[in-house]
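Researcher: Please translate sequence to C-alpha cells.
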Amino acid sequence: MEVLDPTVSHDDAPLCINDSIEKASLRQIPEDTKSCIKARHTLGFLGFLGFALVYAMRVNLSVAIVSMVNRTAFPDDDSNDTSDVCPKGPQINGTFIPSPGEFNWDDTTQGIILGSFFLGYVITNVPGGRMAEKVGGKLVYGLGVFLTALLTVISPFAAYWGLVPFLIVRIAEGFTEGVTFPAMHSMLAHWVPPLERSKFAALVYAGSNFGTVISLPLSGWLCSLTLWGGWPLAFYLFGSLGIIWYIFWYFFIYDTPADHPRIDYQERLYIEACVEPKNHGDDRGVPWLSILKSAPMWAITITQCGQAWAFYTLLTELPTYMNKILHFDVQQDAVLSTLPYLTAWIMGLIISSLADYLLQNRVMSILTSMKFWNTVSSFGTSLSFIGAIWAACDHVWLMVMLAGVGSLQGAIYAGNQMNHIALAPRYAGTLYGLSNAAANACGFLAPYVIGRLIEGHETLSRWHTVFWMAAAINVATNFVYLIFASAKEQPWSRGSS
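Model: Translation complete:
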C-alpha cells in the first residue's frame, strides 16, 4: 500500500510548506498562551461583513426598482396569451400595493439599469487584483467597499436627477466594487493555509449570500414605508453601514501576518509555514501570455461564466418573476427571494467543512475535490431551474426546487473558487480578477438578454426559456472544467517557462 507524503497532495499540489515546523511549533504552545481570537479569523469575519454589505448595496435595486417604476405607464401587452400565465390568488389583508413609481422605465430600460453595474465591475477586476498584489489587499478591498457605500448613499439623488446620472452612478458603483473579490483573493493567498481554504472561502465569500438574504426582505420592507418615499431608504441604510464598516477594517486588518503588530506569534509561524510569503521586493511582472495560453486558467474562467449566468438570473430577475408571474407583492417576493441564498449560504458552510475534512484525511486529492464539488454546484443549480419549470405555478414546489435543490450552488466554494491560488499563489489576485471579470460580463448580459426576451410577454413559456438557458449554460461550462482543470502550480508562477 502506498504511503502518502502529508506535505503533498495526490496531484502534487503542495498542502503546506514545511509542515513539520508547523506541527512542532503547535505542540510546543501551552494552551493558556494560545490566542482565543486569531488574526486570520478577524480577517475572515470583517471580510464576510464587507461582502455582505457590497452585495446588499448591489441587489437592493432589484427590489427597489419595483417601487421606483410607474407600472401604469406600460400596460401589459393585450396580445399576451392569458392562458399561459399563473392565476392570481385572493389578496391577503395587509398586502402591500406599491403606489405608482416616479420613473417611466420600460422592461428593456430596467434591464439596462440592472446590468449597468457590471459595465464598471468588469473593468476593475484585473487592475484591482494586480493593485492588491503590489500595494496590499487591505487598501484596495477597504476602499472598494467604502467608495461603493458613498455612491450608494447618493444613488436616490442621481435617480431623481435623471436616467443618465443614475446609470453613471450605477456604473461607478460597479467600478469601485470590482476590486473587492480579487483583492480579497490576494489576501487569502497570504493568510490562509491550504487545508483551511475551502472552509475559509465559504465563510468569507458567502457574505455575498448573507448580504442578499438581508438586503432583499429589508429593502422590500423599507420600500413599503412612506418616509422619504420609501425606496430611497434601501440605499441610505446599506450605504451608511458600509461607511461604518470601513472604520473597523482600517484599524484591525493588515496585508500579511508579518505586517500585523498584534498577531499571536505562533499563529504567524503556523501561517508562514504553510503559505508562500509575500516578497515586497520581488515583482517580476505578470506573465500575461503564459496566463492567456493556460488551459487550466481557461477552465476556471469558462465554468465561472456559466455559474455566473445562472447566479445572476436569480439575483436580478427572480424578484421580477415572482412579482409578475407568481403575483407576490413586493414584500412577499423580497422575503421568498432570499431563500435560495440563505440555503446556499448554509450548504456552502457545510460542504466546505466536509471538503476540508476529506482533504485532511486524504480521501480526495485537491484536484478531485475541486472537480467534484464544482460539478455538484453546477448540476444542483441547473436541476433547480428545471425543477422550477416543472413546478410552474405551484409556489411551494417552486421554492423547494430553488431553495432546496438550488442550495447545492453553495458547493462552489469548495469547487473552483480557490483554484487560482493553487495555480499561481503569487498572482492569485490577478488570476481571480481575470476570471471574475469574464464571469461578471454575464452579469450584464443576463438581465439584458432576459429583458429583451421577456419584454411585453410576461408568460410562463418565456420564463421557462430563461430557466432552460441558464441550466444548459451552467452544465456545459462545467464539462470544460472537468476536462482541463488542474491544481498544480504552473511553471510560469515561479518565473519558468
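Researcher: Any highlights?
Model: Confidence is low (pLDDT under 50) at residues 1-14, 17-33, 92-97.
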